[in-house]
Amino acid sequence: MQNSAQSDPSLVAQFYATRLEAYDEMYAGEEQPLPHWQPLMEELDQLGKEGLDLRRREAQRLLRENGVTFNIHDGLRGAARPWQLDPIPLIISEDEWLVIEDGLRQRAELLNLILVDLYGEQKLLKQGLLPPQLVYAHRGFQRACADIKPLGKRPLVICSSNMARGPDGRMWVIDDRAQSPSGAGYALENRMVMTRIAPTLFRNCHVKRLASFFQPLRDRLVRLAPQNKDNPRIVLLTPGPYSPAYFDHAYLANYLGYTLVQGEDLSVRDGRVWLKSLEGLHQVDVILRRINDEYCDPLELRMDSRLGIAGLLQAARLGNVAIANPIGSAVLENPGLLAFLPGIARFFLDEELKLPSVATWWCGHDLERKFVLENLDKLVIKPIYRRRDQKAIFGAQLNDLEREVLRQRILRRPHLYTGQEVVSFSTAPSLVGDLIQPRHAVLRSFLVAGDDGYQAMPGGLTRISPEVGQLVVSSRAGGHSKDAWVLSREPVQYVSLWQQPKEDQVLPYYEEPLPSRAADSLFWVGRYVERAEGIARLMRAIFLLRREQRDADAYIAKPYLDSLLRALTHVTGAYPGFVEEEEGEALLLTPNEELQSLMLDIDRSGSLVGVLDSFVQVAMTVRDHWPTEIWRIIDAIQSDWIDEESEKLPGNHRREDQLDQLVMQLVAFSGLSAESMTRESGWMLLDIGRRLERALGLIALLRATLVPVQEEGVQNKLMESVLVICDSLSTFRRRYHSYMHLPTVLQLILMDNNHPRSLAYQLASLQKHVTKLPRSRELQYFNSKDRCLLQATTALRLADPVQLSQSAEGEGLYRDLDDLLAGQTENLWRLSDLLTSSYFSHSQLHQLSPPRQDEDDEV
Amino acid sequence: MKYRVTHMTAFVYEGLVGHCYNEARLLPCQHPQQKVLSTELNIDPAPDDHYQRYDYFGNWTNYFSIFKPHEKLEVTATSEVEVSVSPQLNMIESLPWEMVREKLRNVRSGELVEISQFCLSSPSIRVDELLADYAQPSFSAGRPLLDAVHDLMQRIFNEFTYDPDFSTISTPLKQVLEHRSGVCQDFAHLAIGCLRSQGLPARYVSGYVETLPPPGQERLVGADASHAWFSVYQPGIGWVDFDPTNNQMPQEQYITVAHGRDYGDVTPLKGVAYGGGEHELKVSVDVMRLDEQKQDSQKPKP
Predict the structure, then answer these.
(1) Nearest in space to A105 (alpha carbons), one of A187, A224, A213
(2) Domains and CATH numbers, chain B
(3) For the complex shown, is ipTM > 0.85?
(4) Domain boundaries along the sequence of chain A
(5) Taking CA atoms, what residue in A is nearest to B120?
(6) Mutation site for B-interface testing, chosen from A412, A855, A857 by largest number of B Cβ within 10 Å
(7) Is the terminal CB of chain A with fewer CB neighbours within 10 Å at N or C?
(8) B247-263 pLDDT tens trace
């Protein structure tokens, strides 16, 4: 086909020229784009290459800044990749969508009926509609769940189906997700970005809103609550920041207004599920889970699971908690089911299956197995139970030997395999490079249960294959995503998720409980951010000094620099470093390598980049607490310092400039958090961590620099440096002009209550926060944390700066100052321990019996 | 025959356990040849939560959790049961084994549907060629099912060495087969794997067997152990037990506790504990005959 109408710069024309031999979403085999694509195409033509590219970059910027990522390999450093969004949406007309929607709703209904039946009467097995082996050999069939009463008529609360259009123009379902369908959060984020980069087009096209899916979802979850129906506590259970779709979880939790929790935040007692928070235990009524079935309960399911909650199944069995979807739903994620769906539809609904599945043959039956084995080269082979490490095998891509190996594997355990037709999906116009090109697309839509059936998300998450002609489409394989626009003929009503109170009133205020794990993380974010700043400031001073050293008086310069280097070892805690007796001296002569390592060696404990890495990782675990601007700083630090491609390594930039920039980022983090976080427990813990660390860092610095008695010239230099590092030099100059002597310096950085860098200020802040933290009833009045702080404050108040600056003849150090500082350290460490034991109490999980090995179904 | 069985399990930790969750399948179940007279589960420290239920396989299951810090968990199950002799079966007149296999393979309806899951691999028993090869000599064409299974049991008894030092709970079947040694649990798993390799339904049975001291010696309290054997399903008759460790078909000295696809389904006591560090496990089992008359025969191995 040739395009005749448009001339060269037309994007549409370029696209036209590269069409594949497949059904295309926009043309559907015609000469002209389908009418519902026309507004988009006109806009694209107007935009031109540059305009479109601008949009794409704008989309990427928004996604990056919102921290939208997909972890390709779980848990590996630097593997989280920014989510990729194609600025050209997939467009579906209303008429067509009605047909698809109808089919999806019927399908969800069926899947739900199958779920209820398999864990209940098993009519499907006993009346010959499903072969027993297909169910019993499937690892998703959880026998421990058979006696959990289903939650109402539709326990399958959400499900999703991946669809693609076949060569005949009909939509086919490729597979279904039922245990914890993911991607709804990404779909939502894609939509947010699209409405920002193409607001006019979006409005003119009358695109149906996604809120029409999320509102019923929220209603449904509220109604699932076994108790507290008026105001149930709903949590979203995530495997944590190392899970590939952690963003999806955090984003949804935020959007729906649920507390984001991990397994260790919850605990089962009295047959109920409780959220462990700083304020105590809160009963959880509904769990929207994003953990796969087998990991949900280490007592009854996989014993090696660190993600689940021991006793969860028992709580569900007792009917004290609602779990969406019910544990055991993975039994529906079985490609073998597809072959039997038409019969099941007739059996349960007396209807034909409205939305066909891709043709599938289950190898457990003789005829089907024979067919699959004879057509191995044409089919895609999928095991009935999908595991992480297994991909679908395309027979056509195998050589003779590999095909024979596969044949033998199927013959050994035929009931564990299915053969599926390779469908040539339709293509959709996609921006690839700077051209619009056709790419195979798969649409994942989501359904939610309601009282009268299921409701579909209008549109969903569309993913496109990265390469021309490639049929495998997945986020893991590097695919891009698209928004899917379902058009409406009428202008679309704005649906808001915000609920309106019934009458004019100010709503009562609820402080969300802060999960203990999140409290712990926030405390550590505070500590790491402050530690990083302290190290960066000290390092910056050292690099500056080394640069100036050439011009300075060597007599003073050497001991001066040595003191700062030793201080660096103390502040980082990366011993022995510069403080070791013999090798330390050698290092002090040629400190370059050690400095380099303390700054950039991520595997070295205490190094700057190591602290930054810990900061980013722990900040990630509480990402639902960060406003967007803070998230941007975290992201910038990660990409500057942690990511493998970060550019800090080559010596193009001066070290002190890099450190300078980092200090600015860290200060910005502190400033933004102070300005944007409400003064609730979360912020207090962040600030407690920061104050505690600042106090400890200051003490370490002083003990290494000002406690030893030095030549006057050296001491003066060191005092100046300490004031610089503590960001106090300008204050000092303003107050004391050109005087520089120890008592005055100590007065400012230890005792001055009004100076935010002084030790006294840190102690006062700690005292203020610690008093406000929730405390158990028996400790209402004065607890050990208060005593700890009182002791530290009193010692500091009683100290006299002049007295502290006296040293006995020949002792070589300011003894009183050292004693005071040592006492302070001890009190602060004790405070840290007390906080940990009273608020964070995590303990090690321990198995009573060795985990049994699973030998089943190797595929 | 009446028995009192006392099964004590203790976990002794090096540190304090803050809280723990456990599941016990320690109390015997009722079946036609076994009447349960009384059962008692004693848990020390006393559990804060305790729930009971029948599990998927019909085993009496106790869930309990403890929130008091403790250094030791001791669970004692005491049961009194009366076991009767099961009716004599005619091995030779049972169905040819292939017929049983076909019935289960083509099952489309009825009670055999649920039985058919016992023909498949299970988490601890993966059916493979090695098992099929080992099973093969016992399954000659047309041989009656029970006769073939009896032969398989005898072969395992004769060709394998009982060696308590050889195996742990997680010894793979492959090693058992390779070294020709193991304990009752391994022999039960092995036999089950062999039967499933032939397409036959087999399940794991946990319980106790009465052991008798050598003539002239005192019976030692607590010297017994829990035991395991297997069961094969013959349509029309039901489940038939075999003990490959002692080369006999369980009779009235056998007390059944639970059954499932393999050990994993019937683990007597499993749990998750928070804190505690390393632990030491102590188990003692005592099977005491309540009847007057004494029996002096061979000493079965647990």
Answers:
(1) A213
(2) 2-84+266-289 (2.60.40.2250), 97-265 (3.10.620.30)
(3) yes
(4) 70-358+423-486, 359-422, 525-644+653-677, 691-839
(5) A137
(6) A855
(7) N
(8) 999 988 999 999 999 99
